[in-house]
Design brief:
Strand content: 5-15%
Largest sheet: 5 strands, mixed
Oligomer: single chain
Structural class: alpha+beta
Distance between the termini: 70 Å
Radius of gyration: 23 Å
Number of strands: 11
Length: about 500
């Protein structure tokens, strides 16, 4: 009864807020065009929770490049024009985070993804500095060489595992890829790695997979916080919060181990611990920030790169002619030499195939939402403070006005007339502006080395008689459905 009373009161409050805000702001502000929706829920009932990127793209196509709608308690603006996204996200007023209940309620403004203001600026500067020190750079040199060797260690492990596991009926590469890529991030973030059957590591991988499923932009809890009083969503919330707290206890164990051993490692954990206990101004280096930043760096670094690589392997298996073209290019230019980062400028068609994978299967198809920190404008439209602003990647990456035959896999669209790599203006895999992906160059290094070494070693195909599903499942990221692939060693 108590839960029902709280739910009823919450519904009443949300309804009154909705009526007051919506009616008054419609009169005083020139909001972007869009659907009206219904009280309390806004347009949420019409958004397909399994394919939110498609539902929102349909709205963008109907109402234009700036579309306004209400999603539960959150006023939302969809941006589907790439130039407008660049201009908008270059402004400080759009450098906040969207007021989503799960991210704000669970993360409490800590970490990097959900942080705002001076905390976000300080921590982004810290992360960017660490990445540069670790070797995330386009320019050759000793630091980049060390980073390349760290990446190649897990690439080689992954290649050997897939060779041993592969069979005529194929193997699902997810577990092997997740272990190897995850261990690369473990090395960079925590300064340690796990064996594949380690129970702590198995639990951390499971928790990450569950989080990706539950924390999506279309999740009702993000926009209707009173849903947490319903049993189904209450259980989800408890699972996520309990998982976060257990993860933080594991992180503290790793921190304690580091402090006892005092080994010098190129890891975020070591760098943060030094900053937190140093003599410099360390107001943003707190214990809660420590836990949340480690989680953000591991989760974001692992999930997006893992998902892109899985899609790349699927496209190679379903487009054998494209795969052979890449392998022929590699054989002609490199011979038997295994590809390295120095070969990125040579292997143009491989880079184009990776880019086409990122375009056609945007890992974050609705983009990472921003939030407005003040009343501002987009073009001729007013945007209230606290608005969620969504850079709709799926809409931009599949817009026929920018891409000919946009739903087909055509890597050559990223190759210019002179044979060099081109980046069309509608291509925004790492977003844009002040909050664009801070580790974009590291992601490019990892994707290139994994993709190049896999194609150098294997012919990738579907098992005989098997049709591979390319639709995917959408949570935070758009991930492939479970599948099996055959990894045949090349002669």
């Amino acid at each position: 009864m108590a839960a029902f009373a709280i739910l009823s009161l919450s519904l009443l409050c949300v309804f009154l807020i909705y009526v007051f805000f919506y009616k008054n702001n419609r009169k005083s502000l020139r909001l972007p065009p869009g659907p009206t929706g219904v009280p309390l829920f806004g347009y949420l009932p019409w958004i397909d929770p399994s394919r939110p990127h498609v539902s929102l793209t349909e709205l963008a196509r109907k109402y234009g490049p700036v579309c306004g709608l209400r999603m539960g308690s959150v006023y939302t603006v969809l941006l589907s024009d790439p130039q407008l996204v660049r201009q908008t996200f270059a402004k400080d007023a759009f450098a906040g985070r969207a007021p989503l209940y799960l991210t704000h309620g669970m993360m409490q403004g800590y970490g990097l993804i959900c942080a705002e203001g001076s905390l976000w600026k300080d921590q982004r500067r810290f992360v960017a500095g660490c990445l540069k020190n670790f070797g995330m750079t386009k320019l050759p040199g000793a630091r980049r060489d060390r980073m390349e060797q760290r990446i190649l260690a897990v690439v080689n492990e992954c290649t050997l595992k897939l060779r041993d596991l592969s069979a005529e009926d194929g193997v699902d590469p997810l577990e092997t890829l997740h272990h190897c890529l995850g261990n690369l991030m473990n090395d960079l973030v925590f300064g340690k790695v796990y064996k594949e059957d380690d129970e702590v590591w198995k639990w951390l991988r499971h928790l990450q997979e569950e989080g990706v499923k539950h924390i999506g932009v279309a999740g009702p809890l993000n926009f209707l916080p009173f849903f947490r009083f319903l049993p189904r969503y209450g259980r989800t919330m408890k699972t996520l919060i309990d998982g976060k707290l257990k993860t933080h206890r594991i992180y503290q164990t790793i921190i304690d181990e580091h402090r006892v051993q005092r080994e010098r490692t190129d890891s975020f954990l070591a760098a943060f611990d030094e900053a937190m206990n140093g003599d410099v101004d360390n107001r943003s280096f707190t214990q809660q920030q420590f836990y949340h930043l480690l989680a953000d760096l591991f989760g974001a670094g692992t999930d997006t790169t893992l998902t892109t690589l899985r899609w790349f392997l699927l496209f190679m298996a379903t487009h054998p002619d494209e795969q052979k073209k890449l392998q022929d290019e590699m054989d002609e230019l490199l011979g038997e030499k295994p590809p390295s980062l120095d070969d990125r400028l040579l292997l143009v068609h491989l880079e184009a195939a990776i880019a086409e994978t990122q375009r056609l299967r945007s890992v974050v198809p609705v983009g990472i939402p921003h939030g407005t920190t003040e009343v501002t404008q987009i073009g001729d439209y007013d945007v209230p403070k606290g608005t969620m602003v969504v850079p709709l990647q799926w809409a931009m990456h599949t817009d026929p006005s920018y891409w000919r035959d946009p739903l087909s896999f055509q890597p050559e669209r990223f190759v210019g007339p002179d044979g060099g790599l081109v980046k069309p203006k509608a291509f925004l895999p790492y977003q844009a502006g002040k909050r664009m992906c801070v580790g974009d160059e590291l992601a490019k290094m990892i994707l290139f080395l994994f993709a190049a070494r896999f194609l150098h070693t294997f012919v990738i195909s579907a098992p005989p008689g098997v049709h591979l599903d390319l639709e995917g499942e959408c949570g935070i990221t758009l991930i492939p459905k479970a599948h099996r692939l055959v990894f045949t060693p090349r002669k």
